[in-house]
Every structure is written in C-alpha cells, then in structure tokens.
C-alpha cells in the first residue's frame, strides 16, 4: 500500500504541510506507507506538447516522455494505490507547480479517441487538500462553483475522470505569517484569526488524519 502526497505548496512548515503530515499520520495508523513529495524541490515544467505520449507505437506511449526532474517520479506516482493532491489556494485554484505536475501525469493517460478513453495503469484512491485565507462559503461558491464550474471544481472533475473521486479536506482562514503586525495586512483581523486557529485548526487537522485513515482502509478493502 503506497500513497503519494503531492504537496504543491512552497512552504516547508506551512498550513498545507501540516495538513499533509496529519493525513500521512492517519494513513500510517491504518497501515499504509505514504510519501510526501514537495513539488517545489523538483525542477520541471508543465506539458511541453511534444506528444511523445501519444506517438503510435512510440516508446513513451501512455506516459510522459519528457526527461526532466520528475521523469521517474511520474512513473512511481502512476503506480500508487493512493494519490493526494495538496495545495495552498493561489488566485482561487491550485498552485502552478501542482497544475504542471498534473498536466504531465494525466495528459498521457487520456487517449485522443472519440471517447477520450483513459489508459492510466491504475485507478487509485484520491484526496485533495486545500488551505486558504477565505472561509467555506467562498470556496463553495467561487472556487468550486455551481456544478463544479469554478477552477477547483473543474480540477476535481478532471481528477474524477482519470482516477477515483477525491475526498476534499480543507483548512480555512489560515495564518499566513506568525506576526501580522510586521506586514501590511490590515484587511485581516489577527485576533479573529488567532481564535479560529485555536478553535478550528485542530479539528481540520483531525479531519486530515481521519481522511488518511479512510484512504488506507479503502485501499485495504480493494
Ligand atoms: C500568491 C498567493 C495567492 C493567494 N491567493 C489566495 C486566494 O485566491 N484565496 C485564498 O483564500 N487565499 C489565497 N492565498 C492565501 C493562501 O492560500 C493561504 O495562506 C494558505 O493557507 C497558505 O498555505 P501555506 O501556509 O501552506 O503556504 C494566497 C497566497 C499567496 C501567497
């Protein structure tokens, strides 16, 4: 049982990292090995549109043929039992690093036939982890959107086409800096944020832990 937790955030010790670690602890409790991959540690680009992955009879058919820093990693993730897509929300959606990784992972799996058939070697369990400044109503209305029409809604629809439907785990109203006094950020009420962090963050981390456990249990059941 192997779960890859793809962390698309730049901060080693930020909110997204904390949620990923909690998810990993939950998965471990239920017997799954997981690996958190910090995408910012890798050197790569998004899809180069070389189409090696779709070349008839080609050696890279169905997998990304572009040899940069994630060439091997893509193969490992493609054979995982579970994949977690984690990101701080930037401009209403996932970070460019996570987006670029998904282009490279998913595009080779989608065949340019009439049905857009999917030829991924496995169909793993999935989860998405988002952390963000806003609270749930903005996520639901603007980022997920009605009938999944928002940027994150579209992203989750795509994950569901290729893999299994993701479970969504979120941390809202997050702390961006340890001392709000040092930054021009008067739009945020630090006291309210501090209260939220004390009251809600432990629950959000627990939800990530439970989601990790659930994913491992689902993998075990097959
Ligand atoms: C470039 C940038 C863009 C952001 N855009 C949004 C946004 O559109 N909506 C939002 O709620 N938060 C936004 N945020 C806030 C982060 O999503 C939030 O602080 C997140 O929890 C940071 O995660 P981290 O601690 O793992 O870095 C943005 C932050 C940055 C740096």
UniProtKB/TrEMBL annotation:
Record key words, sorted: Flavoprotein, FMN
NADPH-dependent FMN reductase-like domain segment(s): 1-107
Keyword Cell inner membrane attached: no
Keyword hit for Flavoprotein: yes
GO molecular function terms listed in the Swiss-Prot or TrEMBL record: oxidoreductase activity
Record-linked Gene3D superfamilies: 3.40.50.360
Protein name (database record): NADPH-dependent FMN reductase-like domain-containing protein
Organism of origin: Cloacibacillus porcorum
